[in-house]
Each structure stands twice: as C-alpha cells, then as structure tokens.
Specification:
- With about 270 residues, the chain is α/β, with parallel strands linked by helices.
- It has two domains: about 5-95 and about 170-200, no CATH class; about 95-165 and about 225-265, no CATH class.
- The protein has helices at about 5-10, 35-45, 55-65, 75-85, 95-105, 115-130, 135-140, 150-160, 170-175, 190-200, 220-230, 235-250, and strands at about 15-20, 25, 85-90, 185-190.
- The chain has a four-stranded mixed sheet, with helices on both faces.
- The protein starts with a helix and ends in a 15-residue tail after the last helix.
Amino acid sequence: MTSSAALKSSPFSHVLVNDKNKMLYCIVAKVACSNWRRVLLALSGKVNATNPTDINIHAVHHQYKSLLPLLRSFTRPESEHRLSNYYKFMFVRNPLERLLSAWRNKFQTNMSTSVSFRRYFVQVIVRQYRNDSQQLDKKSLDSVQIRFDEFLRFVVDQAEKGAVLNDHWERFHKLCHPCTVRYDFVGRYEHLEEDAMRVLKSVHADRMVRFPERSAVYKHSRTTEVMREFYKDIPASLLKRVYRCYQEDFQLFNYSVPDFLKLENNK
C-alpha cells in the first residue's frame, strides 16, 4: 500500500482514473497515450462511442480531462483507496526512440493540434542556441527548422538545470513515480498490442473494447534503422549527456543502449 507521506510528496498529475473499471493509468506522451485515452473513454461510458477509434480527436486531446479525473483531484483517503484497490498500469518506450519521435512529431510536422506548441519551443530554442535570432523577425516561426541536435541539447540543458521538462520528453520516473506507485503492470511499446490485451484482460474488459491497431508501417526493425540514421551524426559528447539524463529510465525499465551508439567507446 502507498503511504500517506509518499502520496503527499507526489502530485499524481499524470495518473488518470477510471472508476467504472477500477483502473489507474499513468499518461506517458509518445507511448500510445492517445489510444489509451480512447480506450478509457470508451470504457467509461461517458462518450457516445463504444469503439475507441470512433472517438473524435478533440475528446482524445482535450475533453478527456473533464471525463476522466486525475488522481490528484481526489482527497488523500480517496486517492489511497484507489491506489490500494485499482489496477495500476503504465507504458514505456526506449527513451532514445521516444526522444526522436517527439522531435519528429512536434518539430518536423505542422499538425494543427500542435501549432502553438511548436511555435513556442521554436522561439525558445532559436533564441537560446542561434546567434542569428533576427530570423524570427524575417521568417514565419512555422518555417524555422529545429535540428535534432539542437533539440537534444535543449532537452539535456534543461534537465541538467533541474527544470521540469515538457511531458513529451520528461523522464518516465518523473511522470509516473514508479518507486512510489506500485504498478501492477508496466507495458512496453515494442509489443504494444499484446501488452494492451493483457491490461484489458486483467480488468475483464477485453470483450468490451479492442485496443486500436498500430499502423502497418510500424516495424521495430525499421525503427532501429531510423534511430541509427538520426543519431549517427550526433556528437559523442552530446550523446553521453543524453544518456545520463535518461539513465534512470534505462535502468528502471531494463532498456539497453542501442549498439550503434557505442557510448562505451566514448567515455
């Protein structure tokens, strides 16, 4: 059971509560969190859809906050009851793969759902790392390209300062407090469908909903090739800093550093 002291020390601002199915899910951005919100919304009965894929994008990204309360919104006794009696789960992903996914999604595309997000961080990164910051006046923010190495440097600089990182690249242990919350199950993105089914079976919901299938273009082997392509030109000194930043996540969740990074040869 989670102690009152531990509960008080953590905000649990990322743990969603589904009282109907007695589930607690820690949201981790870039690890299928949109589809997990779809599933929890469908199970809750609070949306006009029983098929998760039928739930509109607005509900998935915004409306869910009013339909699925966060654990922090409950009193201490109410939270402790849920922590002791509900099925608690989270999903993780190779930290380096997740970083690359965050950069590609947020800085290499102009999705309508993240325009303001991109503009804000583009402005911050350009002002911090480029001498020619006047380009902000000459160009639209939407046309400025943030390089992967710039993004990585920004992330580790913030982490080394002790800053709270954005949810899309914050460390798993900072988001979900696995040493405080004793999760019943920690799924892995590498075998998402199988692990999602295990979660649904554990709460007897596998006949009620089906976890949305990933695109057929996703292949773990291809993911490794893409990682190799984008990380191969990152300086070894920066790679070591990135690894140190995420080292606790690598160790806690048993992820190994990809061989192609060869960090051990650059100590």
